[in-house]
Each structure stands twice: as C-alpha cells, then as structure tokens.
Specification:
about 90 residues; alpha+beta; Translation Initiation Factor IF3; 2 helices; 4 strands; about 30% helix; about 25% strand; globular
Length: about 90
C-alpha cells in the first residue's frame, strides 16, 4: 500500500488537535471520491485521533507508518460519492 500515489499532500506536523483533523477534513472535502490524501503528522494525539476520525467519516485509511525522522505518514482514500435514490 505504501506505493500508492497521492493526489494531494498535507503537512500538519506543526499542528495540534483539533486543528489537525480540521485541516485533514477540509483537504478531503476538496478531493474527488477515490483520490488519495497523504498526510504527515508529528503530534502523538493527532496520530491517534486523525485516522480514527477520518474512518468514522467513512474514508479508508490505507497506511499509517512511522518514518525514520519520527514523523508519521498517513494515506487516506476519500470515500465514494453518496448514492442517490432514484425514487
């Protein structure tokens, strides 16, 4: 999964919760369903909360890895479009 090519990259290593989730959510809102968002995080609380929050919003977390420099890399796939009932 680490070979996935992100459509957008977000560096929130200098930010803390809840700003980390807010910035991630706003970035996902600008993307199309199925696109991959790459997020770099450093704050321990954000490393726990951001993946959990985006999963609860229906997005798919494909990867959460710790890099050699202590930064975490997160790959999120934006959830598909809402199904519309034709009736």
């Amino acid at each position: 999964m680490s070979g996935m090519q992100p459509h957008k990259t977000l560096d929130i290593t200098a930010d803390y919760c809840p700003i980390t989730f807010v910035k991630t959510k706003l970035a996902l809102e600008e993307m199309k369903p199925g696109e991959i968002l790459e997020v770099f995080l450093a704050n321990a609380e954000a490393v726990q909360n951001v993946p959990r929050s985006v999963r609860s919003d229906g997005h798919v977390v494909h990867l959460l890895e710790k890099l050699d420099n202590g930064i975490y890399r997160l790959l999120i796939e934006k959830k598909g479009g809402e199904e519309i009932d034709p009736d």
